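Input structure tokens:
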């Protein structure tokens, strides 16, 4: 047999052929055009040598087994490419079928991560063995990027597990570890780390020379049965409605996965594979997959590689962190640090309040313990790392201190002056403010160069993003340390320049303000909330304001008015602030008060306040439904362009990533700026002008948007 660019082929004296995947010039093996051509030739060679072959082992020379499809290639597919893409995928899958029907035992020896196309390649083997390492990830995450597994993953997982058991892996893109794969029957054997995986594969072939897939055996039945089984039929009947309630029809991939999975049970395996290809090509040549891949894969990886981290600053880790304020945000930050092995001091005005803040972590850990996501020893170790304190001296020697006190300048200045002297040499002082400019807050510090903004999002244990805000005097070293800390605690950093509200709070404020403005314009509250969610926002704007509390919204606006007055600058309050003030003045300040835009009865689910229609009379047909939806999405994108124009944002990648993970802007769009690109810059500008003419100047296209339109350019 002849080696190929993507494969090394070795025949042992025992007749076993070891195929080592080792694509040249790549850190990981990917299912690109070169691999596909080589794989088809590989199978032809294996078939030619079948008579003298006793078994075949697939393994990898890389740290990972196989990284999946080549997304750089895939993101370029257009609708016109569909026939070509279909033919290429079918040719690859035909070769995969020939491999699993070669009549000799095929074992996949999985030495590292096998995701997407990598796991699909492993599924072609008759048996799978894997290194027993909890760091290895396996699975089919394609749905999280707007795709479905197109190289047989849907068909084979359903035939291995049945529809119900396969659903979480396919519909949610659920990843799993080697031990989980063994328990599920997806791998046949685990090999201790450090032992010879290929030798173990040889032994498996000798002990259990399986040479046929279950679905190629006569009389094969899908586990759990197909649509004819009453339980399966019941699941199929309710699944589309449940899925649509979750995706709100914004995401075609989960629906396509479900359809492909169900359809695959009604036909033979080869027809099922062809059906799967058709669904894959429809998604792969569509816009939503491009939006999601561009931001959720390429954008996130760019940030993880430290694209905005200052170069030349040594890598840094915090060993001791202080958190000022043990409310929900401060308690969450303490959890984030302690759960990553960092000693954390949680300080408040009384030890009792600090202890209460530590209880937040205790409750989180107890929940994890109840579902076996941690152990008693790990729970106790994490809690031991959190030291509640009232005395500022407890902060002595902290590498990083983060203030998370109430959004009030005077209070933040006070705690800064108290705590900054406790920093270790070279330490960093950070503010978790969501709106106040860092440059102004840094004036309270003895050394403004080591002051920075670290804006976390609530709840901290669930929210992935941290917005890093550079003050006018923040040093490059401070920025690099802040970036390193955010990654140290397993979160995603974006870096922005200083301004009131920065990027995320400023844009998020337009979302909530627009919800109130729509209410004032006569749109029923239920329509506002439902259309926001149908557009892809996780929660309606009125519900969000209740969670934040209307009093905080008013306090932020009042602080902004005072700051602008002191600086001699004009201040324009949000257009719908009077709606918020009217509710707050009536004692309806939000969820914490038990009443806001919603009522919160103790023994029932929340419901929109029945008095909203009287307080803000409904005017039928005042705002067309398309305008309601567009006002909610367009206002956020327009404000993001202003942030780019003003230099608050320096990176379109961070605008897109930050909007999805910080604001909850719909992931199907690829983020606020990609939403404009996908709409078409000129078409977006025209629509913004229409909205401005109908509803006010806040929708007027910024100069940067007009310039892009005039030049026929997209945002890059």
């Amino acid at each position: 047999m002849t080696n190929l660019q993507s494969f090394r082929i070795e025949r042992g004296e025992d007749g076993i052929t070891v195929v080592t995947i080792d694509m040249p010039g790549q850190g990981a093996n990917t299912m690109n055009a070169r691999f596909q051509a080589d794989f088809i030739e590989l199978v032809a060679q294996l078939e030619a040598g079948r008579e003298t072959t006793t078994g075949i082992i697939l393994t990898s020379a890389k740290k990972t087994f196989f990284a999946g499809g080549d997304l750089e290639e895939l993101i370029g597919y257009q609708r016109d490419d569909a026939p070509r893409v279909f033919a290429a995928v079918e040719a690859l899958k035909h070769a995969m079928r020939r491999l699993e029907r070669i009549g000799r035992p095929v074992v996949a020896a999985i030495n590292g991560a096998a995701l997407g196309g990598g796991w699909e390649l492993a599924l072609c083997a008759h048996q799978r063995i894997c290194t027993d390492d909890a760091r290895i990830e396996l699975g089919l995450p394609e749905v999280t990027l707007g795709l479905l597994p197109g190289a047989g993953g849907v068909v084979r997982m359903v035939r291995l597990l049945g529809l119900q058991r396969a659903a979480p892996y396919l519909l949610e893109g659920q990843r799993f570890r080697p031990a989980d794969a063994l328990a599920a029957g997806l791998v046949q054997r685990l090999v201790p780390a450090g032992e010879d995986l290929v030798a173990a594969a040889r032994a498996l072939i000798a002990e259990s020379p399986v040479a046929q897939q279950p679905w190629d055996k006569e009389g094969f039945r899908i586990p759990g049965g197909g649509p004819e089984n009453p339980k399966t039929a019941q699941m199929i009947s309710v699944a589309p409605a449940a899925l649509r309630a979750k995706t709100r029809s914004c995401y075609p991939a989960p629906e396509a996965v479900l359809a492909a999975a169900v359809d695959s049970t009604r036909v033979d395996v080869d027809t099922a594979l062809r059906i799967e290809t058709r669904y894959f090509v429809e998604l792969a040549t569509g816009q939503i997959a491009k939006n999601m891949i561009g931001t959720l894969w390429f954008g996130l990886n760019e940030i993880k590689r430290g694209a905005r981290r200052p170069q030349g600053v040594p890598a840094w880790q915090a060993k001791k962190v202080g958190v000022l304020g043990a409310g929900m945000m401060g308690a969450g930050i303490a959890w984030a640090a302690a759960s990553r092995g960092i000693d954390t001091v949680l300080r408040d005005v009384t030890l009792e309040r600090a202890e209460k803040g530590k209880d937040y972590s205790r409750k989180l850990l107890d929940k994890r313990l109840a579902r076996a996501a941690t152990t008693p020893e790990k729970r106790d170790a994490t809690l031991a790392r959190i030291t509640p304190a009232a005395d500022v001296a407890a902060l002595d020697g902290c590498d990083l201190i983060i203030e998370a006190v109430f959004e009030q300048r005077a209070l933040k200045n006070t705690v800064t002056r108290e705590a900054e002297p406790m920093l270790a040499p070279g330490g960093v002082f950070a503010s978790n403010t969501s709106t106040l400019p860092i440059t102004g807050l840094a004036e309270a510090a003895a050394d403004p160069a080591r002051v920075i903004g670290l804006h976390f999002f609530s709840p901290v244990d669930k929210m992935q993003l941290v917005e890093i805000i550079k003050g006018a005097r923040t040093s490059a070293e401070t920025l690099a340390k802040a970036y390193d800390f955010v990654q140290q605690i397993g979160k995603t950093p974006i870096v922005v320049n200083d301004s009131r509200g920065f990027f995320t709070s400023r844009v998020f404020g337009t979302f909530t303000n627009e919800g109130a403005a729509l209410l004032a314009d006569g749109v029923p509250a239920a329509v506002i909330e439902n259309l926001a969610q149908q557009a892809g926002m996780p929660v309606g704007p009125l519900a969000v304001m209740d969670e934040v509390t209307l009093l905080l919204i008013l306090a932020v606006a009042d602080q902004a008015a005072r700051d602008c007055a002191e600086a001699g600058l004009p201040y324009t309050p949000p257009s719908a602030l009077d709606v918020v003030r009217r509710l707050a003045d009536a004692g309806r300040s939000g969820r914490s008060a038990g009443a806001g835009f919603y009522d919160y009865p103790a023994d029932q689910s929340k419901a929109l306040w029945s008095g909203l229609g009287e307080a803000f009379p409904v005017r039928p047909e005042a705002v067309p439904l398309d305008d309601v939806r567009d006002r909610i999405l367009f206002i956020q994108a327009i404000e993001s362009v202003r942030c780019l124009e003003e230099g608050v944002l320096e990176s379109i990648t961070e605008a897109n990533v930050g909007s999805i993970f910080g604001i909850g802007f719909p992931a199907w769009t690829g983020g606020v700026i990609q939403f404009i690109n996908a709409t078409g810059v000129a078409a977006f500008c025209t629509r913004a002008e229409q909205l401005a003419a109908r509803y006010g100047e806040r929708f007027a296209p910024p100069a940067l948007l007009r310039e892009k339109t005039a030049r026929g350019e997209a945002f890059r």
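The mean pLDDT is 95. Residues 625-645 form the longest helix (21 residues).
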